[in-house]
Design goal:
The complex is a heterodimer of chains A (333) and B (585). With 333 residues, chain A is an alpha/beta fold. Chain A folds into two domains: 2-106 and 240-316, FAD/NAD(P)-binding domain (3-Layer(bba) Sandwich); 109-236, FAD/NAD(P)-binding domain, CATH 3.50.50. Chain A has helices spanning 10-22, 44-48, 62-68, 128-137, 151-162, 189-195, 291-305; strands spanning 2-6, 27-31, 70-73, 78-82, 87-90, 94-97, 100-103, 107-110, 122-123, 143-147, 166-170, 182-184, 199-201, 206-212, 215-220, 225-228, 230-233, 236-239, 255-257, 268-270, 275-279, 284-287, 318-322, 325-330. In chain A, helix 1 (10-22) packs parallel to helix 7 (291-305). The N and C termini of chain A lie far apart (42 Å). Chain B is an alpha/beta fold and 585 residues long. Chain B folds into four domains: 2-198, Pyruvate-ferredoxin Oxidoreductase, domain 3 (3-Layer(aba) Sandwich); 210-382, Rossmann fold (3-Layer(aba) Sandwich), CATH 3.40.50.970; 401-466, no CATH class; 472-584, Rossmann fold (3-Layer(aba) Sandwich). Chain B has 19 helices and 23 strands. In chain B, helix 8 (237-246) links the parallel strand 11 (227-230) and strand 12. In chain B, helix 3 (125-133) packs antiparallel against helix 6 (171-191), helix 9 (260-272) packs parallel to helix 10 (283-299) and helix 16 (489-502) crosses helix 19. The longest helix of chain B has 21 residues, at 171-191. The chains are: A alpha/beta (333), B alpha/beta (585). Chains A and B meet through strand 6 and helix 4 of A and strand 7 and strand 8 of B. Strand 6 (94-97) of chain A pairs parallel with strand 7 of chain B, so a sheet runs across the interface.
């Protein structure tokens, strides 16, 4: 039985491990679009600030991959999926057969219409590659502007501030809430960040970025003119589902799955940040971002691909270490 | 990452511009003062049918061999490149084409065979080449552009090199090739911005590139080669090509004959007429020449046979290297048939060595077999050749006026060398034949005459020793482990010794361009100072080891590598380490 997993993030690699731990004979191929061995994305800030070494980021060493018998293909992505023929086609036109397929392609920050023209001036911080690029630039960086939302944005701001950088955070909201509808935190997040020396500009957004002699000039909708050494910006976090565009796999923003993480197509599963799953509280489909969800979904997808019948239960919250203080966050009330 | 040495292999099929890739990359690196070595491997088949590869190693330090392993493999054709993945170092990189037309089966896809220890990088080679040139041509330049960015090499040097390589083409051809280079460069800059750094010393002067075949041809011409006759054969043909181009400019001639027997016959004729002459061939050709070499021995007519060894026997492996022709060079003649055998170890020695070969052949009226090999002959490397141009050189022992009065062409002398005259000169009346003969050259089959003449022919080899270079002894004088090598294997031995040295094991090496005869005393002294002797060579039998055993009575540790690729320095280092462990027990 050949299990092909598209995506080498937490969900994908957890599924691969689950399959091999339960069935040593299963053939497991993991296709990751990044150039590295599977790593713990949630530790990137610690790596960037030199609190941990690069090796400590890894989920698996090469030896462990070999021991488990997982075939990892790095730096590759899937162009198309043909569920009827049980085939996938990779970016270099290689055609691969599967018996069971898991899509765990994650999500990535995306730019809206206003920011898209300035893409080449914008830095991202969502992968190890981004982090390595940033690590090279860091010594030259003094001032940073960050525009975005979500826990990863909060993580970025705190990391930059921890490194002694001058940070300006721009948000469309009245307060810096990072789109967390509910969180357990000692005090107000907005005030806490300001007290830590982070400048917060509210009810505003970036409309123009220009290269200047020593960095960038940034203009906001409130006509603020700012200068900075680096700009991080994204409008929303979007599931990476380009590979299913031409297939019959049902989707909304992400790939729609049932509680067994099955897609609308036979023998195709999906897990992690690329899926939308029905949320009984919200009474709608919902993307379950975050590490605990990805881990849980990876395990369940792996088991179900082996013919078991496990159901996924939504993880209620994630716990986050915010500059030494615990933050328990939810995206819903 | 930071590099001071890189090995890159382009791999595809004949017609993919693989050899040109090596040439451009090597040229650009040599121009920025790096040391470069290039080894091309191609199929024996015609264009489009066989696999072809060019391996380029460049470094800030002097290179002696192709080293071990690849830092980067560029797979221009997916399926053909799969086997080369085994040569990629842990942590190495692969560039593969993402724009192949049509579906590729998983088992035929280069990417599918890349293990996690290696990093693959997709590059739409064909697509970008098409964008630049409108055809599939220029694929190699797309890849070179990507490499230039990947290792932070200066693009302007590559653009200069492209201009130089395509200088004979129309301007728009140069432009589209530069465009292909730029597209590859930009693609990598956009998609793989995190590149590596190659340490370049900006004060370095450009270096010259040459091959062993080039150096042999140039060395021969510079010391008075007037006539070349040959029959094309891989990997020796380049020597004839250079002779054909250069000799007419200097009043000389090059003849392509109907076969190798005719070629050496013509060369003997030219020497007989007093002209410095040469042929170049490979194993099968040398086999055919064996009887004419004997003619050279018996008639004491000088001759030079360059044998660029390839894999054998028979037609064998026309495009692969091996050092399997030592025995035929030494012993491949009927009767007691002494000949000089020389084996250069690098391109510098190809130049200086062939000049020595001419001087010895002419002075001692003997055949000299100059044993190069495919790796040495065809590899391109940065070298500093000390030019020695004297096209009127003559080392012939001419008769005195008294000797001419009663001319004895085969006069018995102390050194075994008789006076030699060009037929047609006054007094030059003598008989020359492959038959045994008296001092005048007339056929004679008496026992005492044959014994006397045989001894005379062998005596020349004792007296010529004074004209021969001493053996080189390299490494640590006090080392217990000694290595004896020959030909192009020396480069790998030197690097293997260096690897062992870094592990704390001292070694020393004896090498000589002279295989037969040799300065035997220096070899005896060297071997006496060693507790263990290692003899690595690229053949199955251990042909050089057999010679050393019979000549010096040693019992060496033999490494026999019937190789199709240059010897791995690591393999030699491993044997040194094993030997060191045995010694310490």
């Amino acid at each position: 039985m050949k299990h092909v997993i598209i995506g080498a993030g937490v969900a994908g690699i957890t599924a691969a491990r689950t399959i091999k731990e339960q069935d040593r004979e299963a053939e497991v191929v993991v296709i990751g679009d990044e150039l590295f061995l599977p790593y713990k994305r949630y530790l990137l800030s610690e790596f960037l600030s030199n609190s941990i070494k690069r090796d400590e980021l890894l989920f698996f060493s090469i030896g462990m991959l070999k021991e488990l018998g997982i075939k990892l293909r790095k730096g590759e992505h899937v162009k198309t999926i043909e569920p009827l023929k049980k085939l996938i086609k990779l970016h270099h036109n290689e055609v691969m057969h599967y018996d069971k397929l898991l899509i765990a392609t994650g999500g990535s920050p995306s730019l809206g219409l206003v920011l898209r023209p300035y893409k080449k001036h914008i830095s991202f911080y969502s992968s190890l590659y981004d982090t390595l690029v940033l690590k090279e630039k860091l010594p030259e960086i003094r001032k940073c502007i960050v525009f975005g939302n979500g826990v990863s944005c909060l993580d970025l701001i705190c990391m930059l501030r921890n490194l002694g950088k001058q940070v300006t955070y721009i948000t469309k909201e009245e307060q810096a809430t990072f789109a967390l509808n509910e969180y357990d935190f000692e005090g107000e997040l907005h005030t806490f960040l300001e007290e830590k020396g982070i400048e917060i500009i509210t009810e505003d957004q970036i409309v123009l970025i220009e290269e200047s002699d020593n960095g960038y000039k940034v203009e906001t909708i409130q006509q603020k003119m700012l200068t900075t050494d680096i700009v991080f910006a994204w409008d929303y976090y979007k599931p990476n589902i380009a590979c299913i565009e031409d297939s019959a796999i049902e989707k909304k923003t992400g790939i729609l799955v049932n509680v067994r993480l099955e897609t609308s197509e036979k023998d195709i599963y999906a897990a992690g940040d690329c899926v939308e799953i029905y949320h009984p509280c919200l009474k709608n489909y919902w993307i379950n971002f975050g590490l605990p969800n990805a881990l849980e979904q990876g395990k369940i997808a792996g088991k179900n691909m082996l013919g078991q019948n496990e159901e996924y239960k939504i993880q209620e919250a994630i716990v986050f270490n915010l500059m030494g203080k615990s933050l328990k966050a939810r995206w819903w009330k | 990452m930071k590099y001071s040495e890189i090995t890159i292999r382009f791999c595809g099929i004949a017609g993919d511009g693989i050899v040109a890739s090596g040439k451009i990359l090597a040229g650009a690196c040599a121009n920025i003062g790096l040391h470069v070595m290039v080894n091309n491997i191609y199929s024996a088949e015609i264009r489009g049918l066989g696999k072809s590869s060019a391996t380029i190693r460049f470094s800030t330090e002097k290179l002696y061999s192709m080293g071990d392993g690849l830092d980067l493999l560029v797979g221009m054709m997916s399926k053909e490149s799969i086997i080369d993945l085994r040569d990629v170092k842990v942590g190495g990189n692969v560039i593969y084409d993402t724009s192949t037309i049509g579906d590729v089966a998983e088992e035929d896809s280069l990417a599918s065979h890349i293990t996690p220890e290696i990093q693959g990088h997709g590059l739409p080679i064909k697509k970008l080449a098409n964008e630049a040139t409108g055809t599939n041509q220029g694929k190699n330049l797309v890849a070179i552009g990507a490499i230039c960015y990947f290792y932070s090499l200066p693009p302007e040097m590559f653009i200069d090199q492209i201009r130089s390589v395509f200088a004979h083409k129309e301007e728009h051809i140069i432009d589209i090739n530069i465009k292909a280079f730029n597209l590859g460069y930009e693609y990598f800059r956009e998609n793989y911005p995190l590149n590596n750094q190659f340490e370049i010393d900006k004060r370095s002067e450009p270096r010259a590139l040459t091959s062993g075949n080039d150096a042999i041809a140039k060395g021969a011409i510079d010391c008075g080669l007037k006539f070349f006759a040959g029959y094309p054969i891989t990997p020796a043909t380049k020597i004839m090509e250079i002779a054909a181009k250069e000799l007419p400019k200097l009043g000389g001639w090059t003849l392509q004959m109907e076969d190798e027997i005719a070629a050496i016959g013509a060369v003997l004729g030219a020497w007989f007429a007093g002209k410095r002459a040469m042929t170049a061939t490979s194993g099968p050709g040398l086999s055919l020449m064996s009887e004419m070499i004997n003619m050279s021995v018996m008639a004491e007519i000088p001759t030079i046979i360059v044998n660029v060894q390839r894999g054998g026997p028979s037609t064998g492996l026309p495009t692969k290297v091996e050092q399997g022709d030592l025995n035929i060079a030494l012993y491949g003649g009927a009767g007691d048939s002494p000949r000089v055998v020389m084996a250069p170890t690098n391109s510098e020695e190809c130049y200086s060595g062939i000049q020595l070969a001419f001087d010895i052949a002419e002075k001692y009226q003997t055949p000299v077999i100059f044993l190069s090999d495919l790796f040495l002959g065809q590899r391109t490397e940065t070298v500093t050749i000390k030019e020695n141009i004297d096209r009127n050189r003559c080392t012939r022992k001419k008769p005195t006026p008294e000797q001419l009065e009663n001319f004895q062409r085969y006069q018995i002398t102390d050194d075994g060398v008789s006076p030699l005259i060009v037929p047609g000169e006054p007094g030059a009346v003598y008989s020359t034949t492959g038959l045994e003969h008296s001092v005048t050259g007339n056929p004679n089959y008496e026992e005492d005459v044959h014994s006397m003449m045989t001894a005379k022919r062998f005596r020349k080899f004792e007296s010529m020793v004074e004209d021969l270079p001493e053996a080189d002894i390299l490494g640590e004088e006090t080392a217990d482990i000694g290595i004896a090598g020959w030909g192009s294997t020396i480069g790998s031995i030197l690097e293997g010794m260096e690897i062992a040295k870094k592990q704390g094991v001292k070694t020393k090496l004896i090498k000589s361009i002279m295989i037969h005869p040799q300065h035997e005393d220096s070899f005896r002294k060297f071997f006496a100072s060693c507790k263990k002797i290692i003899v690595p060579e690229m053949n199955y039998q251990g042909q050089y080891a057999a010679l050393l055993k019979s000549r010096y009575g040693i019992k060496p540790i033999e490494i026999h590598i019937p190789s199709v690729n240059p010897v791995s320095p690591l393999k030699i280092a491993q044997k040194i380490m094993e030997t060191s462990s045995e010694l310490s027990q």
